[in-house]
Specification:
40% of the residues lie in helices and 21% in strands. By secondary structure, the chain is of the alpha/beta class. The strands form three sheets. Strands 2-1-3-4-5 form a five-stranded parallel β-sheet, with helices on both faces. A hairpin with a 3-residue loop joins strand 11 and strand 12. Helix 6 packs across helix 8. The longest helix is centred in the middle third of the chain and has 17 residues. The termini are far apart.
Length: 230
């Protein structure tokens, strides 16, 4: 990370760990802000442009994963480095699927932390981020978290937006109900639930009603597919 874009938000509720991180990162040349709670992280994360946010999963008020999801829903695209004592495979997978870009298990080497921060910083500086997904005349703005078809805006609730985004990222592919439940709701498949069908029905009505052609297609017995004609 170079120039002015070396500001990091550290989200950590343990005072000793927080002080060590702030001191070491400052000594290493970073500008560091500190948030000691989930609520403070939400306020700071939405107010400033950070190169990276490091976040503990276990916070006193709001779970770190919930904080990440809320900031993502609010259009914050900054890379997240999750730092947590929860190091089982399921813990790491859940954190990454919830919006984390990397995961570091406590206790850790500060040298490794610096290397991971540099890698995330390079990624955010050198990779041109895809901010608009398009399928036919459907446009999904990943930063503003909005969708539209032509000139008509599509009002979507946060979970509806996540569902549509996942379908768009898999344009032309058949997505099963189990995949949607896992990647959008972070749940294992439950054959008794109809939550997928309910939400797809809502999104389909908002996206396809009164349009020249449908985009969301049901693949009987398998799942759904988002595709444009032609």
């Amino acid at each position: 990370m170079t120039g002015a874009h070396r500001r990091i938000l550290v989200v950590e509720d343990d005072p000793e760990t927080a002080d060590q991180l702030v001191d070491q990162l400052t000594t290493s040349g970073y500008d560091v802000d500190l948030a000691a709670s989930g609520r403070e992280a939400l306020d700071r994360g939405a107010a400033r442009d950070y190169a990276v946010i490091t976040i503990d999963r276990m916070l006193p008020d709001i779970d770190g994963i919930a904080v990440m999801r809320q900031l993502r829903d609010d259009g914050i695209a900054v890379p997240f480095l999750i730092i947590s004592a929860l190091g089982e495979v399921d813990d790491r997978v859940r954190g990454l699927r919830a919006g984390g870009d990397d995961y570091l298990v406590k206790p850790f080497s500060f040298v490794e932390l610096l290397a991971r921060l540099e890698a995330l910083g390079r990624r955010s500086e050198t990779v041109v981020k895809e901010t608009i997904l398009r399928v036919g005349d459907l446009a999904i703005d990943l930063i503003a978290r909005t969708a539209s078809r032509g000139s008509r805006k599509i009002p979507l609730l946060p979970k509806e937006f996540q569902l549509l985004e996942y379908l768009a990222r898999n344009e032309g592919r058949v997505v099963s109900r189990a995949m949607l439940l896992q990647h959008v709701w972070d749940l294992h498949f439950d054959p008794s639930t109809n939550i997928i069908d309910v939400y797809v029905g809502r999104v389909r009505r908002k996206v396809d009603d009164q349009q020249a052609y449908p985009l969301i297609h049901t693949i009987r017995g398998i799942g759904y597919c988002l595709r444009a004609p032609g």
